[in-house]
């Protein structure tokens, strides 16, 4: 079935349109008749939407789903999509009161950061800001996905803990950073990426094993094999919904991890809300961090090691002194919030320490 973008731009070929007609014939005969009319008279497919009321009826849900979109009523109380024009602007004034009980020890984070700076600054400051980059498997900081702060912290943690096994859910620029640190460690370790749709950015990284499958299809014993200082690096769909990877990760995988396992989560802005631009302009309706907060609330099983966005917002000057690329880029995030620092690192506490 052809995508809606072709429909809207009038780029459907007659053959593609006939294919749509055939598939719609049984369930949507009125729509199929309208499409035949388009074929006979040479009309524009995109104009058809205004002439067939059935396209917008409740019964046409499956038609639009096959075209690549979901149609639902604006302001539906049962929809996970927010009604943007009713959101209170106070949501973005500062740390959300919703997350007031979150334990974020800034002092410990700063101490940890200073240790990383003293040991690895000369190494991570070699990351180029812009392409082309012939080193680090082509990694550069201003990539819009996994940028400065997140990269340097990930690099430092891999260097510092020297994990035997890293399982990464969703690969990309982060994979390149992890590999740079593994190369420096010179240890016999394993790096596995789980991704049903592997990014082209992973091409040529021969030291990584790629499992092209959904994380939901991976047996739990696979994750239970992680040991102390091993890493579960999660950067998946960021959306809690029935059957989603996020539900599986938080409710099945995380509670079963062994003591001492390190966990990375991305696009987490706690204790702040998701960025206003992401919601209102980019229509990214992520909700993963709410589940994360619920998991951690009153739960001594997880220790917060690092919160990139919080440190970016509250300790920007300190970070800029220690990381050259961040010093160059931090004010750019005010104009273009692509690639905002948003890594969130946890460690599963040892049960004896609870």
UniProtKB/TrEMBL annotation:
Annotated Pfam families: Methyltransf_24
Gene3D superfamilies, per database record: Vaccinia Virus protein VP39 (3.40.50.150)
Protein known as: Methyltransferase
Organism field: Natrinema saccharevitans
Upper taxonomic lineage: Archaea, Methanobacteriati, Methanobacteriota, Stenosarchaea group, Halobacteria
């Amino acid at each position: 079935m052809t995508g809606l973008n072709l429909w809207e731009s009038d780029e459907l070929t007659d053959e593609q349109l006939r294919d749509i007609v055939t598939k719609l014939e049984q369930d949507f005969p009125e729509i199929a008749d309208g499409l035949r009319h388009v074929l006979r008279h040479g009309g524009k497919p995109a104009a058809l939407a205004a002439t067939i009321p059935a396209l917008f009826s409740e019964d046409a849900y499956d038609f639009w789903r096959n075209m690549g979109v979901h149609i639902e009523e604006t302001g539906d109380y049962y929809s996970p999509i927010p009604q943007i024009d009713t959101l209170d602007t106070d949501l973005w004034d500062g740390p959300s009161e919703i997350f007031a009980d979150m334990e974020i020890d800034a002092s410990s984070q700063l101490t940890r950061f200073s240790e990383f700076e003293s040991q690895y600054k000369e190494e991570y400051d070699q990351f180029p800001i812009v392409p082309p980059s012939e080193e680090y498997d082509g990694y550069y900081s201003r990539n819009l996905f996994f940028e400065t702060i997140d990269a340097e912290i990930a690099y430092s943690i891999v260097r510092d803990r020297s994990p035997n096994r890293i399982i990464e859910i969703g690969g990309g620029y982060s994979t390149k950073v992890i590999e740079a640190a593994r190369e420096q460690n010179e240890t016999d370790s394993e790096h596995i990426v789980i991704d049903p749709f592997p990014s082209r950015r992973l091409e040529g990284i021969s030291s990584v094993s790629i499992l092209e499958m959904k994380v939901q299809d991976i047996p739990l014993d696979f994750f239970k094999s992680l040991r102390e200082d091993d890493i579960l690096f999660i950067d998946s769909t960021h959306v809690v919904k029935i059957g989603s990877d996020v539900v599986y990760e938080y409710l099945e995988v995380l509670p079963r991890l062994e003591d001492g396992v390190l966990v990375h989560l991305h696009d987490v802005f706690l204790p702040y809300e998701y960025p206003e631009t992401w919601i209102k302009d980019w229509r990214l309706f992520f909700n993963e961090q709410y589940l994360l907060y619920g998991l951690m609330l009153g739960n001594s099983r997880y220790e917060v090691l690092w919160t990139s966005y919080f440190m970016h917002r509250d300790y920007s000057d300190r970070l800029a002194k220690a990381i050259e690329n961040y010093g160059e880029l931090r004010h750019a995030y005010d104009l273009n919030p692509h690639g905002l620092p948003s890594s969130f690192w946890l460690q599963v506490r040892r049960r004896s320490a609870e």
